[in-house]
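Standup, Tuesday
Yesterday: got the pipeline producing structure tokens again.
Today: sanity-check two examples.
Blockers: none.

Example 1:
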Amino acid sequence: IFALIVFSCLVGEGYTNLSSSSQLFCIFNHNEDACRYGIGIGILAFLACIFFFMVDIYFPQISNTTDRKYLVLADLGFSGLWTFLWFIGFCFLTNQWTWTQAKDVHVGADSARAAITFSFFSIFSWVSEAV
């Protein structure tokens, strides 16, 4: 759910424009990579959650212990990797937000703060999956 919040905040109000121009730019210090990173890990985390949820549903029906072991290790490894990626995302978005000038932010400041906050919360939710 945190991944959906980060993704929707960045897609919904993460891009803005100046009143004198119709060109959109990322609200995080005009750094397109910040918005792309947040959107990318949000989408991939959501899709991975759906995949691992389906694996959990069908897990009792898998009789091969080797397949079970690989699925559990894949879930553990992915959770560890995604914990690290969310930490990087939190640091990156926070850094870019601190360099953003107040005159460039007319709409979307709350969405930017929400994306940063839920990136931080995502670190702990993925750690709990890895443990």
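Example 2:
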Amino acid sequence: RFFVNFPSAKQYFSQFKHMEDPLEMERSLQLRKHARRVMGAINTVVENLNDSEKVSSVLALVGKAHALKHKVEPIYFKKLTGVMLEVIAEEYANDFTPEAHGAWTKMKTLIYTHVTAAYKEVGWAQYPTATL
């Protein structure tokens, strides 16, 4: 859904940036592999919410890699976490209480805050600081 809602995000993925069909993207092994890495990082954050140093460390690594190696504009983290929240709310509608929504909204903010802090730390020059 992320790539359907924000097709410009595909520019960062040479393996499937030209794919238009959502089913083709869904079947892409490279996309599935990346999705597993993303969810693994989020799982690590969730499992370590009581260890702020671990959370900071994991999200700093993600932020620095995406800033320096992949050159991804940080706004895409806000967009991705928004889509994730949307999908979780739909998939677990019966269990997605206001409390759960609040917790996932805090998680979304936590991820974006830490990732963008890493961008600032490495001196992300390709993107204006005001949008971080």
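Quick observation on example 2: Residues 2 and 12 are 13 Å apart (CA to CA). The chain has a mean pLDDT of 91.
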